[in-house]
UniProtKB/TrEMBL annotation:
One of its GO terms (biological process) is DNA repair. Pfam families: HAD_2. The keyword Hydrolase applies. The keyword Hydrolase applies. One of its GO terms (cellular component) is cytosol. This is HAD hydrolase-like protein. Keywords: Hydrolase. One of its GO terms (molecular function) is phosphoglycolate phosphatase activity.
Amino acid sequence: MSTPLGGYVKKKNYLVCIDSDGCTVDSMDIKHIRCFGPCMVDEWDLQPYREKLLNRWNEINLYSLTRGINRFKGLAVILKEVDEKISPVRDLDSLLSWVEESDELSNAAILRAAEEMDSQCLKKALHWSEAVNQKIRALPPEEIRPFPGAKEAIERLHMTCDIAVVSSANHEAVMEEWSRFGLLEHTDVVLAQNAGTKTNCIRALLEFGYDTDKVLMIGDALGDMEAADRNGVLYYPILAGYEKESWQGITEGLKHLMDSTYEGEYQRKLKTRFIENLS
């Protein structure tokens, strides 16, 4: 195990990149419903609009094509709506600019930006993110577990493929969960929020000499598919609400990958169903 890419070694000709929250680990709904949204309402003192804003937060982050969006980008979307429809958000432009321009959307990166710009909004966004992480750490461990069939599928994939976790979630949380569920032993590298965007992580992995038609990204969100497309690699969707069936289908996906028949009709069919499921 190496993390991040400093000691990484390519061992096999095939590489499978796998998202964590909402894809492998059934933790996405509970984290957003109990942690992300409520902490946002508290940080910006929006209690009078709590129910409306929590519903909107969940729609943005769980139940639409923006599912799985980076936490700071999701925050920027909803605060822009608050600014336009409810009340002005002080120094919002600093956050909107940072999420568009930064190559790394993490606590460490926003801390640096907040200090450099002396931005009130960025400081509040960091405080919110730290509060979210604290609430996530306090979640009952027994309520978070891998989706049925995920661990077994990853074990099968690891027999013939290098495995990289490529996630926008907090690195500490990903490491703790994958360790607790016995998934790290079937993983070669963990690239989380602190390693940069998913697009950049896949690009960095390709530099180790993988052919793009031998690299597969497994994810549950549009951002996962876009990261795969930007790098010219293949995509396998885990469908929200159909996670068990999706992981069971990875056997067929692996066969197409090995037979070089993944790209084309099979890939188009998977992507179409994925988009329809989130629309």
